[in-house]
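Q: Convert this sequence to structure tokens.
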Amino acid sequence: MGTNVVVSDIDETAGNETVEMLTKAGGDALFVKADVTHSQDVKKIVVESVEKFGSLDFAVNNAGALSAEARTGDYSEEDWRRLIDINLTGVFLCMKYELQQMAKQNNGVIVNMASIAGITGFPRNSAYAASKHGVVGLTKSAAIEYARKGIRINAVCPGYTLTPMAETAMKLRGELEGELEKRVPLGRLGKPEEIAKAIIYLCSDSAAFIGRCLTDCTLNHFFFPNISRTLE
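A:
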């Protein structure tokens, strides 16, 4: 059975292109333009999703941004506030309205996009690291709160992945790709579809006993805090 998909982005052109791709593949999809830093926009995503498809079964919170590199003492307050607003507050707002709907249903799955920077330091990118550490803490806290409501909440912590954001950074610094590859045990950058497969797994029935898991897509293993250990 196929999955109905709601795509949301601040970029209307890119969002509609994604919906068109899904529709051509035989799926049913809806685009909702929204800025995750605006509460009413986020609420609209959930409302229109439920109006269109009847329920909200899975949610992937993936909006994020980077800023210019700088040491913490030289980091601009403007960049700090912007990154925290998008990367952390945006995830909180999405979860707020997703959880309200899923609690009514007594079921649902949420997967938050964190980062390897959410479990380690990230020099010259302190706001990004702080925001992703925040996503990890938010995920763990909410997962405990809602587990007995039938809602599973996990996070994926990708390592260096060949996304448009990474490609832009590599264009500015030609040597960056080689530097990043050296930091990855597999010796290469990740592919977006590899991260997507981890997310799909966490949404599936195969992951029915996985809650509060941080899936590390750099080291190629899973942490199962409910079963074995936590990351603290």
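The first strand starts at residue 5 and ends at 9.
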